[in-house]
Amino acid sequence: MSPTKPSVVIIPGSFSPDYFYFDIVKQLQEYGYEAQVKNLPSASRLPPEQPATMYEDADFFRGLVEQLADQGKDVVLVTHSYGGVVGSEAAKGVLKADREAAGKPGGLVKLVYLTSVVPEPGVSLGGQMGATLPATIEIEDTGFMRQTKFEIGAKECFSDLPLEEAIKWGKKMSKQSAVSFSNELTYPGYKYVPVSYIFCEQDEILRPDFQTSVIAGIEKLSGNKVDVRRLNAGHCPNVSNPLGTAKVIAEAIVGA
Q1: Spatial separation of the C-alpha atoms in residues 51 and 61, rounded to whole Å
Q2: Contact in structure between 191 and 93 (CB atoms under 8 Å)
Q3: Alpha carbon of 212 to those of 71, 110, 206, 207, 233: distances in Å?
Q4: Which of its termini does the chain have fewer beta carbons within 10 Å around, N or C?
Q5: How far apart are CA 41 and CA 54, in angstroms?
């Protein structure tokens, strides 16, 4: 990475509006980073619109990285949950090394996975999670998914918040494209850039054994050691502990 701080782009988790991450963005900006978060196409459309695929999500965030890189900036993608699939796919064509070889400035220099799903090529989020997918998700005839049974879902998603507050956040979750969970990864971006993984120890959605297996899979496929950072938090530390999460993200970026 260059001596100047890289730009940070946050890729949200499924069902999660961009404002779920605004406090993290603000804190990263206070640390001196250019940081932003944008809505996933798969989590921001509504019927009768066509549900977006994971590939459309990846194309969207790849475009953001490309815009920043064209300005000569190094970029770090920070992904959350489902966003790990998107970020891995979005790395194709925007790696700093590939852009340098083509005589272009900037590019993707690191992936930071915040309790994320990170499959191998040919596997989707649904394929990697299997039976661990939350039972509170309901697929509508429109091709969108929605969260149901808010009390149960809130206990899982926001397990480190008081139940009443967790339910409020659960009711703010958006619809999510169903097909996005079945789209298979085609490009393992984690093979080609340094990787940090923020392990959420109290996660009730991606439980510790699942996160451990994800890290092992990245290391096996990439042949590189993953920098693991631990956070005593549930599945959505962006909501329950945004300042602490931003601190760990910043530490992961610089390798402190």
Answers
A1: 17
A2: no
A3: 37, 20, 10, 9, 16
A4: C
A5: 9
Q: At what angle do helices 83-90 and 54-70 cross, to 10 degrees?
A: 50
pLDDT in tens, 71-115: 999 999 999 999 999 999 999 999 999 999 999 999 999 999 999
Class of domain 7-254: alpha beta
pLDDT digits (tens, 9 = 90+) for 137-176: 999 999 999 988 878 888 999 999 999 999 999 999 999 9
| pLDDT the model gives residue 256 | 47
Rounded distance between C-alpha atoms, residue 206 and residue 202, angstroms: 9
d(CA 87, CA 91): 6
In DSSP terms, which residues pair with 7 in a beta bridge?
Answer: 75
Locate the domains of the chain by residue range: 7-254
Tokens of 224: 């590189």
